[in-house]
Amino acid sequence: MGIPTTGTEIALTGLGGTEVVTTRRSAPPAPGPHGVLVRVEATGVSFAEVQMLRGRYPAQPKFPFVPGYDLVGEIVAVGSAVTGWRPGQRVAAMPRTGAWAEYAEVRDAELVSVPDGVDAGDAAAMILNGVTAWQLLHRAAKIRSGQTVLVHGVGGGVGVLLAKLGVAAGVRVIGTASASRHEALRDIGIELIDHRTEDVDARVAELAPGGVDAIFDPLGPESLDRSWRLLAPGGSLHAYGSSATLHDAGPWWRPYLGLTRRLARWELARLLGRTGGRRARMYYIRPNAQFRTDLTELFRMVASGQLRPLVAERLPLESAARALDLHISGSRTGRILLIPGLPGSRRGVTAAGCARHAKPVEARL
What are the distances in angstroms from CA 86 to CA 41, 132, 327? Predict the structure, then answer.
């Protein structure tokens, strides 16, 4: 299996909306000593790419560049120093950028094997979103069966999997989402709050009078203040983004400075014994050994039928601009995927009503 002479890739050419999304042809690189060239079978659309359009993603490359946070595909060539991987193997990786292409180079140390029989799209939906959800639940919060958690933005890619994995672990899940998403989420077995029409604090206090054991919040600094007040004694708050600040003016790092200040203040109070054992932490996914261990476990769960991601849409790679529009609009619940070589769009696993377009609603992860 040789290196192809050309392939399609999607590039962001500058700041703006989806008008800066460009399809182009380029020669795939020969892999470096520890590089592996992968023919991409599926890659995800995430909130990270939405932030990159606006120059608000931490440490994003200079324009123009190929985005794409995660991928699943088949190895077509390996570098001279690569051992343990060979052409023909199916693999997954999280390169953070570069995955929106027919062919992508990934370092050998970042690869995870994809089991036979696991759909490429289902596997892709487990990489960024699945590992984030798994680590938030089991490594950060260390949640236990019988406990109660609150998931803000439960209709997003991470939120759906937080709910599914929480329910699978015997956890009671309360989730916030706009009403348009509720139908697609009901079968998961969670308690839903419409954050647009209901008083979230009052509803959580009604459902969990003693507070909740863990809160997962991707919204940003102001939301953290409200979340902190909803924790039970000994509970934990986990911030993993700042999606509500997408349209704020100023540098990309300003919201994270606000997050850091709040977390530092609460940690000092905890150390002084003034929080009733409550704690707050920032989470950020890293493609390290823990990541590979956790992704392998998620693939096992998918292969065995214990877990199935919610895939909202599968679109051709060349439809990346449309995929971003759908993501931004909030008219889909679950992961939107790009499939190189797909001749036309086809609906993924979705519920009735997800196909209807809506006005822009909530930022999705």
Answer: 17, 28, 35
- pLDDT tens-digit profile of 227-248? 999 999 999 999 998 887 888 8
Q: Phi, psi (5° rounding) for residue 254?
A: -60, -45
- Contact yes or no for 334/309 (Cβ under 8 A): yes
pLDDT at 359 over 70: no
Best CA proximity match to 214, nearest among 184, 169, 268: 169
Q: Which amino acid is at 235?
A: G
Report pLDDT digits (tens) over 31-61: 999 999 999 999 999 999 999 999 999 889 9
From-to residues of CATH 3.90.180.10 in the chain: 7-125+309-347
Sign of CA dihedral 17, 19, 25, 27: negative
Which of 339, 328, 283 minimizes the C-alpha distance to 47?
Answer: 328
Does CATH place domain 141-282 in 2.60.120.560?
Answer: no
Domain with CATH 3.40.50.720 in the chain: 141-282
Name the pTM for this structure. 0.91
Which architecture characterizes domain 7-125+309-347 according to CATH? Alpha-Beta Complex (3.90)
